[in-house]
């Protein structure tokens, strides 16, 4: 395709609007600007903007699927590259790209895979632009153009129509979560074992016995009266069995009082109880995130596989070069 002046571009646009049976999706000046773009990034940005491709890959919330947009840009790029390689005129290229975008719309927005109906629509659209019979049809394409366009649509478009529909159509995703009508309390932690309790009581009673012996040594009698009183009290304590029982109870009380304190400290270390609803919500979110990442990777992988298949098909279809032997 050659560069155009403003007058030539307006003439081409007037011819397309008057003869084409469909409204053109791009003007001649915009198509010329896409072909003359030297930068690849700017080239893809112009395709995205001038063909308004974001409208085909938006969801209900207005969010754009970037992976689907890149795939759509590649599809339109292949169509533009085909038009430039075949060296057809700007008017034919505009009508061809318009039919290509119309077929993409049919594939993307129809809920079921119906290749026969899609092929009939394409053949009808191609025929009404190939026979000069106004106002029902116009002779924009020749017989040679029809053969080239039909081969392109069959090999590049209809062969991949099912994959295109799978990538772009909206699929229903069922997500659910379970809720219990009543709050389920977590079971209490088991009590300490006997060995742990014995070790804790021994470790706690050892410093207390050392303190008691030290206090007994400090509290010695300072006079004979004190010593006599102390001896009498000792005699009473040895003779009365109740005194022995009271002493045994006092010695046994500290470990019994320490056991619940140790259990309370361990209960405090457990932390707050987490309700099961929060755990189930986090698990469901993690599952949804995993499914979304898996779908994205699957789409990219399918696209790469199809690109490899296309390149392999082009290599197989390419004619083998004849080697001439030098005498």
Automatic annotation (TrEMBL):
<feature type="compositionally biased region" description="Low complexity">
    <location>
        <begin position="238"/>
        <end position="262"/>
    </location>
</feature>
<dbReference type="InterPro" id="IPR032727">
    <property type="entry name" value="CLAMP"/>
</dbReference>
<protein>
    <submittedName>
        <fullName>Uncharacterized protein</fullName>
    </submittedName>
</protein>
<feature type="compositionally biased region" description="Basic and acidic residues">
    <location>
        <begin position="209"/>
        <end position="219"/>
    </location>
</feature>
<feature type="compositionally biased region" description="Basic and acidic residues">
    <location>
        <begin position="226"/>
        <end position="237"/>
    </location>
</feature>
<feature type="compositionally biased region" description="Polar residues">
    <location>
        <begin position="198"/>
        <end position="207"/>
    </location>
</feature>
<feature type="region of interest" description="Disordered">
    <location>
        <begin position="195"/>
        <end position="281"/>
    </location>
</feature>
<dbReference type="Pfam" id="PF14769">
    <property type="entry name" value="CLAMP"/>
</dbReference>
């Amino acid at each position: 395709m050659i560069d155009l002046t403003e007058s030539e571009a307006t003439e081409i646009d007037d011819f397309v609007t008057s003869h084409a049976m469909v409204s053109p999706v791009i003007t001649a000046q915009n198509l010329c600007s896409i072909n003359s773009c030297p930068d690849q990034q700017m080239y893809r940005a112009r395709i995205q903007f001038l063909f308004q491709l974001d409208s085909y890959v938006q969801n209900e919330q207005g969010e754009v699927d970037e992976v689907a947009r890149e795939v759509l840009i590649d599809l339109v790029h292949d169509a533009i590259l085909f038009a430039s390689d075949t060296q057809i005129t700007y008017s034919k290229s505009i009508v061809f790209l318009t039919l290509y975008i119309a077929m993409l719309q049919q594939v993307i927005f129809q809920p079921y895979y119906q290749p026969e109906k899609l092929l009939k629509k394409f053949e009808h659209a191609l025929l009404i632009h190939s026979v000069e019979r106004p106002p029902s049809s116009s002779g924009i394409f020749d017989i040679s153009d029809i053969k080239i366009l039909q081969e392109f649509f069959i090999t590049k478009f209809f062969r991949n129509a099912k994959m295109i529909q799978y990538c772009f159509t909206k699929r229903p995703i069922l997500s659910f979560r379970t809720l219990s009508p009543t709050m389920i309390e977590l079971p209490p932690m088991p009590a300490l074992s006997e060995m742990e309790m014995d070790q804790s009581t021994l470790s706690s009673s050892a410093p207390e016995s050392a303190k008691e012996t030290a206090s007994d040594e400090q509290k010695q009698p300072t006079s004979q009266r004190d010593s006599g009183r102390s001896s009498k009290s000792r005699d009473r304590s040895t003779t009365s069995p109740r005194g022995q029982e009271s002493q045994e109870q006092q010695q046994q009380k500290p470990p019994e009082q320490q056991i619940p304190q140790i259990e309370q400290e361990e209960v405090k270390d457990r932390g707050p109880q987490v309700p099961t609803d929060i755990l189930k919500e986090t698990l469901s979110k993690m599952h949804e995130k995993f499914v979304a990442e898996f779908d994205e990777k699957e789409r990219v992988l399918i696209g790469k596989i199809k690109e490899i298949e296309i390149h392999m098909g082009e290599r197989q279809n390419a004619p083998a070069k004849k080697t001439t032997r030098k005498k």
